[in-house]
Amino acid sequence: MGWLFDPAHWSGSTGIPVRIVEHFTYTWLTLLIAAVIAVPLGAFVGHTGRGGFLIVGLTNGLRALPTLAVLIIVVLWAGIGDVPVYTALVLLAVPPIMAGTYAGIRAVEPSIVDAARGVGMHEGGVLLQVELPNALPLVFGGFRGAALQVVSTATIAAYVGAGGLGRFVFDGLAFQEYDQMLGGAVLVAVLAVLVDLVFVGLQKLTVSPGVVGAGSGGNR
Amino acid sequence: MTWIFENWDKFLEASGVHLRLAVIPVLLGLVVAIPLGWLANRSRSASAVLMPLSNVLYTVPSLAMIVIMPVLLGSKILDEINIIVALTIYTVALLIRNIADGLHSVPGHVVAAANAMGFRPLRRFLTVELPLAVPVTIAGLRVAMVSNISMVSIGALIGLGGYGQLFIQGFQSNEDIIWAGLIGTLVLAFIGDVLLQLAGRVLTPWVRAGR
Fold first, then answer.
1. Residues with Cβ within 8 Å of residue B130, at least 6 apart in sequence
2. pLDDT in tens, B53-93
């Protein structure tokens, strides 16, 4: 563990802080792009009930897909750089968020939705003010699953030339410096747990205390 | 798609290694998770420790988990034991909750009936409670099996075998090899999933009889 606490590794353009910021940037930017795609799609399918089997099938199928292969195939097609890395990460983050949003909206008590319509709410209001707030715990479950996937895959992305904490693992491997590999791995594990905790905190802050199941964690 | 047919022996060898590295952790994980799930269902304080712990362990990314293993196990970085233990940890973390939930769902009157018939606790657990928890356990095993089969390829990044080697070779030379590994992974995952579903049916004949 000496490597991790050596001050020399905590400065410079390839130091630990820079790699942490890179890794974190991969994570939040990917989640943001994926959310813009996945939440409206999941909400639409959940609200109308059409095409749900497609979302469930896609999410289950994706679990079997090796992330390393996805990463390598995208890089072979699009070349090395930030765009292929983000493409692969977004591809892996969309299904869990979409499935969480879909499942959350489907699980909303039908009588609540009927009551909202009964008091004269428009369909848009029903979705935004009734269904989505009630679906939030499962939506967050989807986000937590996606965040784990992204932190994990961003580490592997260093194999195809990306930055982030995976660099320490692969550089350590290449130079046979096990200390560096281990240090990188520990940092990745800590980052993953912290990101998960951030989502737990966000969930506590945003989910209405009246929503049933607000205390439950992810859907994995 | 020609690579698969021209290199059938290499493909079969990768398949064998891949299968071994994915299935052993599922079996080990099940053996470890049954007593832990029982404990989590029985004692509130054990559950208060085991559930958050398994959540945290499940959060650790796979590459990090594999790289950290040699320190904990005293193994070499290239030992297969690293990936086997890493995947076993994920399997246990996932199954504890399923098994505890499954045991929790056994109706109280069923347990009372077994007691009244003179079943001792161990026999009651093995022949009444555990079988009734099979459907929920199988659901967890299916997730564990499929994600293990997909995660084994990460081991190739530090030099272990299986389909991941095909991805890496394909990245360096010929894209065809990647597709061979990808198809192999999906076929293995499908077969594993179907076999577990079948096992679930065979182990719970009363589900069909009750219909």
1. B34, B103
2. 999 999 999 999 999 999 999 999 889 999 999 999 999 99
Q: Where are the domains of chain B?
A: 2-205
Amino acid identity of residue B192, one-letter, is G
Q: Does A128 touch chain B (CB under 8 A)?
A: no
**pLDDT tens digit string along B6-61?**
889 999 999 999 999 999 999 999 999 999 999 999 999 999 999 999 999 999 99
Tell me which of 1.10.3720.10, 3.40.50.1970, 3.90.1150.10, 1.10.10.10 is the CATH number of domain B2-205. 1.10.3720.10
CB contact under 8 A, A64 and B178: no
Q: φ and ψ at B135, to 5 degrees?
A: -55, -45
CB-based contact B153 A68, cutoff 8 Å: yes
Q: What is the mean pLDDT of residues A132-160?
A: 93
Helix (H) or strand (E) holding A34: helix A16-48
